[in-house]
Automatic annotation (TrEMBL):
This is Phytanoyl-CoA dioxygenase family protein. InterPro entries: Phytyl_CoA_dOase-like. The lineage of its organism: Bacteria, Pseudomonadati, Bacteroidota, Cytophagia, Cytophagales. Keywords: Dioxygenase, Oxidoreductase. Pfam families: PhyH (PF05721). It comes from the Bacteria. Its cofactor is Fe(2+). GO terms for molecular function: 2-oxoglutarate-dependent dioxygenase activity; iron ion binding.
Amino acid sequence: MSIIDRLKGTVKQALQPKPKPITEFEPKTLPWIDRPDANIPAFSQQFEAGKSLPYDLAEKLDFWQKNGYVILEKAIPTEWIDMLWGEVQTLIDHHEDYNLQVRIDLPEYKKTPVMAVKDVPQNVLNGPYIKYMDFHNASVVGKKIMLHKNIVTFLEAVFNDRVVAMQSLLFKYGSQQPTHQDFAYVVSEIPSHLAAAWIAMEDVMPDSGALSYYPGSHKVQKFDFGNGIFFNGESTHNPDDFANYLDRVCQQLGLERKTLLIKKGDLLIWHAALAHGGEPIGNPEQTRKSFVCHYSSEKAYRHHRSRSNEEPVRVTMNNADVFKNPLLPEEEDIFKGGEAL
């Protein structure tokens, strides 16, 4: 190809109209429950056949449709939670032996916010502003909690599809994160096929920087970052703009901001577009141990996010899947205590 031909090709490409930014979830790909014609009683009757559920599914789905979340009490055995946190504490105490990653939201780590735990001082790992990333990959009990039947069965109904767990975060202290909606940061192949579970690993105290949320906010108009509804390197607005927009709109609509004060073993499952955040920590000594897991459907999350062109290695429990981490195969299931459960 000559230089002139290459130049013509470059000019032609530059003149092509850019695709319009996505400003809303695609209506045709919405989960059935988010569509105007959703028939919850009929769906529940069909879905519940042969299943034994610890809650009234139709009631929970109706609440989800209206409010964008549900709370399940005593959903996870406390001994499972104690085992998981014991493993996290082992990681902290012997951090130099592990490559598992953490995100550090402190000013001095602004240039390298994601690091291997072996490279982070123990006092930092044991303090606030730390997110332990994808600890479930290293932990058998972490996977068993993530894919517990109480979570999986409800989300299987929401998506009307097989559930795939995408990622997890473990916190010792409250995140103090500004108000946001998860779809802007955690993106599946079908953005509306996204949900999360917030699992309390201890009783939540009022001054611990508890999770807060706006019931009904999953229906508000999406925020435009200047290049659509997803935050990325080309966005002209930032997360603070996102938070200010959500707080303002929710208040204008009269949506009440609620604080999540639940007990150890309880959990909150929320919609991709539920506006939520972390309250300020009132008592710096007060922990808020929690395990947050994100989920999608089989049709919407087919590959591990770090290897989009490879078939993932799946772990299956309760008719749901989670992918092994292709970047750290040597640390998969190194904490094996959960095998006895």
